[in-house]
Design goal:
alpha/beta; 7-stranded parallel sheet; 9 strands
Length: 249
C-alpha cells in the first residue's frame, strides 16, 4: 500500500502545493483544513492522481476535532507515515502595545496549539503502529530565527515551533519517528503577496523584497519527505536568494 501522508492547511498555498506533490509521488494524502469544499477543489487539481487524495475537514484549534481526525485516519488507513504540520496565520504589522489579547490568542491557537495537537496525535499513532515510526515536518519560518518589525505574535509562535521540533525529534528517537522543520522565506503565495509591494524593515523603512517560486519550497519539502527514517533533516532554510535575512536589521 502507498505511504500515508497528512497535510494541514492543504487548501491553499504551501500546504496545497506540497500535498499535490505527494500525490504525484504516489502517496495517499489526507488534505486537512476547515472548509471541505476548498480541500476537494485542491485535490481535483491532481488530475489522475486525485484518486489518492482524501479531504477531511477539521479545526486544528479544537483538540477534540484533532483527536477525531486522527481516529478517522487510523480507522481508514491503519497508520500514518508523514505529517506536514503546515497550517498557520500571520497578522498585519502591529506593535506589541497595540496587539489585542484576542489576536494574540488566535495566533497562538492556530500556529502553536494546533501544531502541537497535530504533532501529539501523529506521534502517538506512529509510536503505536506496526511497523513503528514515521516522519513529522513542521513548517517554521525565517521568523523562527529573526523577527520582522511588528510581528510579535507570529515570531513568538514560530520560535516556539523550533522548540516543538527539537523536543519531538529527541523524544522520537526511541520510536523511529523523525521530526524536522522547514523554514521558508519569501515564497510567492497568498500570505506573501504584499512582499513585492513593500514591507516594514528594521530601519523603519518600507521596501519591496524578492520572492521565490513555490516550486523551490516543494522541492525542499519533498527532499525531506523522501528520506528513509534512518536519516533526518532537522532544519532546513529555503529562501529567496536576495531577501534580507542574513544580516537583517
Amino acid at each position: 500500500m502507498n505511504k500515508i501522508a497528512l497535510v494541514t492547511g492543504a487548501g491553499s498555498g504551501i500546504g496545497k502545493a506540497c500535498a499535490l506533490a505527494l500525490l504525484k509521488d504516489e502517496w495517499q494524502v489526507v488534505f486537512v483544513g476547515r472548509r471541505l469544499s476548498v480541500l476537494e477543489e485542491a485535490i481535483a487539481m491532481a488530475g489522475a492522481h486525485s484518486v489518492n487524495g482524501h479531504a477531511m475537514a477539521a479545526d486544528l484549534t479544537h483538540e477534540a476535532e484533532v483527536k477525531a481526525l486522527f481516529s478517522k485516519i487510523h480507522a481508514r488507513f491503519g497508520r500514518l507515515d508523514l505529517l506536514f504540520n503546515n497550517a498557520g496565520i500571520s497578522l498585519p504589522t502591529t506593535l506589541p502595545g497595540d496587539l489585542s489579547g484576542d489576536d494574540w490568542r488566535r495566533t497562538v491557537d492556530i500556529n502553536l496549539n494546533g501544531a502541537f495537537y497535530a504533532l501529539s496525535n501523529a506521534f502517538k499513532l506512529m509510536q503505536e503502529q506496526r511497523p513503528q515510526g514515521g516522519r513529522i515536518i513542521n513548517n517554521g519560518s525565517i521568523s523562527a530565527h529573526v523577527p520582522r518589525p511588528g510581528s510579535i505574535a507570529y515570531a513568538t509562535t514560530k520560535h516556539a515551533i523550533s522548540g516543538l521540533t527539537r523536543a519531538a525529534a529527541l523524544d522520537g528517537r526511541a520510536f523511529g519517528i523523525a521530526v524536522g522543520q522547514i523554514d521558508i522565506g519569501n515564497v510567492t503565495s497568498d500570505m506573501t503577496a504584499k512582499m513585492t509591494q513593500g514591507v516594514p524593515q528594521a530601519d523603519g523603512s518600507l521596501k519591496p523584497e524578492p520572492c521565490m517560486d513555490i516550486a523551490a519550497v516543494v522541492d525542499a519539502f519533498m527532499c525531506m519527505a523522501r528520506l528513509p527514517l534512518t536519516a533526518n533533516i532537522l532544519t532546513v532554510t529555503v529562501m529567496a536568494t536576495q531577501m534580507p535575512y542574513v544580516g537583517r536589521g
